Amino acid sequence: MNATNPLILLVAAIFTHNIALVYILGMCPFIVISRNFKTAMGMGVAIIFVVTLTAIIIWPIYWLILVPAKAEIVSYLIFIIVIAATVQLLEMIIEKFFPPLQSSFGIFLPLITVNCIVLAVCLFMVLRKYDFIQTVFYSLGTSAGWALAIIIMAAIKEKMMLVSDVPNGLRGAGITMIIAGLLAFAFMGFAGMITLQ
Amino acid sequence: MSPKKTVKRSFRHTKWFKALTAGLWQDHPTFCMVLGLCSILAITNRMGNAIAMGLGVTFCIVFSSFFVSLFRNVIPSRVRMLAYMVIIATFVICVDRFLKAYFPPISEELGPYVGLIITNCIIMGRAEAYAIKNGPLLSVLDGLGCGIGYTLMLILMALVRETIGFGTLLGYRVMSGSWVNWVVMTIAPGAFFLLGVYMWIFRTIAKKTEA
Fold first, then answer.
1. So where are chain B's domains?
2. Interface predicted TM-score (ipTM)
3. What is the pLDDT of residues A15-30, one digit of tens each?
4. B positions 139-178 inside 8 Å of A (CB)
5. Domain coordinates of chain A in residue numbers?
6. Cβ-based contacts of B111 with chain A (< 8 Å)
């Protein structure tokens, strides 16, 4: 097992190993949904919730069922089925018990099933052999880091739309890429504080 | 007009040809649909990885499009997302095992990104937008076109990033001895800038803009 302190892992996952700007994962919503600050906020919160929940569910399934049964070969299949089922369940619970949340939070849930971050957190946690506590902190940190990145991006883009004059071909996805590159430069400043193997 | 030319033109207007070439230019997965960016950005710092990834994704698109299209009348529409994912994951496991067995260094370097082909939106996008409505053969052609378009994009990115970032191409030295590597091209910021510039160029040529 890996012996990193869970709290260090939390900080590392948010800043030095930010999943959006260092590992470049979860790009589709990062580019497309970051037009509006409020929407980005909703998506970020939804991601934090789903990623942490699925990591907590998948950890025991992998280490207590798949590994003893020597069935690691089907782990991808099991992971995505569990993710899809969790998201579906969450959607139904929100619809039934928390209708006010539905409009601000529920609409993002179906999109999250196909989001790479959820699967990526599960794969990284298996690859680096985190124990349960580390998994909880790591998944929380990773999703919070992604939420931070998309919120910064949305804030920049919202301001940019008011004042800037972007060349025609660069509008939309192109300029988002350039901004993401600058943000990634900024996050490079954190590199070296903590090293994960 | 020679008969050969007539044959060629009539072939170019068939739906088969259209299905194959849509993914190469007017529906290109990266520039027009802005899908599947994670692997385009993350693993293109080496040409070998880019080619392996491109072939893997093409294989997965072709086969999953074929099977989704084959079962399109059986899959209930409420659970179709789950059905796509199960089909895609099966082929991704094939790719993962194949790389592990025959190309262990590449598999090592790609790491979790092979597994993440499952959530590559292109495959899911083609299944939802095309394969679920069309016959198996057309879907295979459409998947092949998209896969080739995607692979070309990966190669274009890797071409610049490996040459400038490491001074090599497929592991062979191409830059002269005094070349100083631009380390930034091998990590995240370089990837973002390069894709931004490519998008600018291609969208200007295609005169395709967004608000």
1. 17-206
2. 0.85
3. 888 888 888 888 878 8
4. none
5. 6-188
6. 127
